[in-house]
């Protein structure tokens, strides 16, 4: 199994203002984005080039938006509770949200091949 381009744990994942998990996982590996529960059960996944991700200007600093298979999710990636790993990251990569958005943009630029 390939090393993930991005991995975060302790992520709150919401859909339509409903919390799906308060300690979920977000992974980008092998050209796919996966949203998982704290137990590792898949909530949703899609090829990363089909995922739209961003940050609303009015959102809290630790929140990102992602559209996966047409479903909108809000991801709360708190730095204090989140362990993130980005390939090539020197440990100084800014907030977890910034690293997540950069991992998605990077995957889009490379055609989803990481």
The proportion of residues in beta strands is 35-45%
Gyration radius, rounded: 13 Å
Spans where pLDDT lies below 50 across 5 or more residues: 87-92
Number of distinct helices: 1
Helical content band: 10-25%
Mean pLDDT: 85
Biggest sheet statistics: 8 strands, antiparallel
Terminal CA distance reads: 13 Å
Structural class: mainly beta
Listing every helix as H and every strand as E from the N terminus to the C terminus, the arrangement reads EEEEEEEEH
* Tertiary shape: globular
Q: What's the total number of strands?
A: 8
Overview of this structure, please?
This protein has 114 residues and is mainly beta. The chain is built from one helix and eight strands, in the order ββββββββα. Strands 1, 2, 3, 4, 5, 6, 7 and 8 form an eight-stranded antiparallel β-sheet that branches. Strand 3 (32-36) and strand 4 (42-47) form a beta hairpin. The radius of gyration is 13 Å and the shape is globular. The protein starts with 5 loop residues before the first strand and ends in a 5-residue tail after the last helix.
């Amino acid at each position: 199994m390939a090393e993930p381009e991005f991995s975060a744990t302790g992520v709150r994942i919401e859909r339509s203002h409903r919390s799906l998990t308060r300690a979920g996982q977000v992974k980008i590996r092998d050209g796919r984005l996966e949203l998982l529960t704290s137990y590792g059960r898949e909530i949703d996944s899609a090829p990363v080039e089909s995922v739209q991700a961003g940050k609303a200007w009015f959102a809290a600093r630790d929140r990102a938006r992602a559209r996966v298979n047409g479903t909108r999710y809000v991801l709360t990636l708190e730095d204090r509770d989140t362990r993130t790993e980005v390939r090539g990251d020197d440990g100084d990569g800014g907030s977890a949200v910034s690293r997540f958005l950069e991992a998605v943009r990077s995957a889009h630029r490379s055609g989803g091949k990481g």
